[in-house]
TrEMBL record:
Keywords: Oxidoreductase. InterPro entries: Lactate/malate_DH_C (IPR022383), Lactate_DH/Glyco_Ohase_4_C (IPR015955), Malate_DH_type2 (IPR010945). GO terms for molecular function: malate dehydrogenase activity; oxidoreductase activity, acting on the CH-OH group of donors, NAD or NADP as acceptor. This is Mdh6. It comes from the Eukaryota. It holds the Pfam family Ldh_1_C. Residues 1-134 form the Lactate/malate dehydrogenase C-terminal domain. It comes from Arundo donax. GO terms for biological process: malate metabolic process.
Length: 163
């Protein structure tokens, strides 16, 4: 599933283009209202829920995501699949502002590089959410989160990784 935007509560999980066992999500889950409201909120708040549940940083989850990101770049992406990656937005076909890092759909030939997927389906709901994430990301979230993460020294607790 593509996640558009940032990793904050403005991220947009793209259920329109996602599949469950090879079938479009909206064929499997017919409750569009649940997808548009509850599902999106659940994904957006996932990091905070993990911190609250574990009572500590979600660094282990971040570490798993890093491994997945590297694997996506060094393994060819199947024709009918894609992965999300925060990429520098210069030259994108989605109208996302230039010169920011924004998660978008990608594919890889397995050579350590990526290409943006430019032909994903967009509906009005998805596009409005992406535009909102883009606007918030440009104006405030990117600057605030950059400052927060700039000073953050990641330490991986072996106890967290073994759970």
């Amino acid at each position: 599933m593509t996640i558009w935007g940032n990793h904050s509560t403005t991220q947009v999980p793209d259920f329109l283009n996602a599949k469950i066992d090879g079938r479009p999500v909206k064929e499997v889950i017919k409750d569009t209202k649940w997808l548009e409201e509850e599902f999106i909120k659940t994904v957006q708040k996932r990091g905070g829920v993990l911190i609250q549940k574990w009572g500590r940083s979600s660094a282990a989850s971040t570490a798993v995501s890093i491994v997945d990101a590297i694997r996506s770049l060094v393994t060819p992406t199947p024709e009918d699949d894609l992965f999300s990656s925060g990429v520098y937005t210069t030259g994108n076909s989605y109208g996302i502002a230039e010169d920011i890092v924004f998660s978008m759909p990608c594919r890889s030939k397995g050579d350590g590089d990526y290409e943006l997927v430019s032909d994903v389906e967009m509906d009005n709901f998805l596009w409005k959410r992406i535009k909102k994430a883009r606007a918030v990301g440009i104006v405030s979230v990117v600057a605030a989160e950059y400052k927060q993460h700039r000073d953050f020294n990641l330490t991986i607790d072996p106890v967290i990784l073994s759970e």
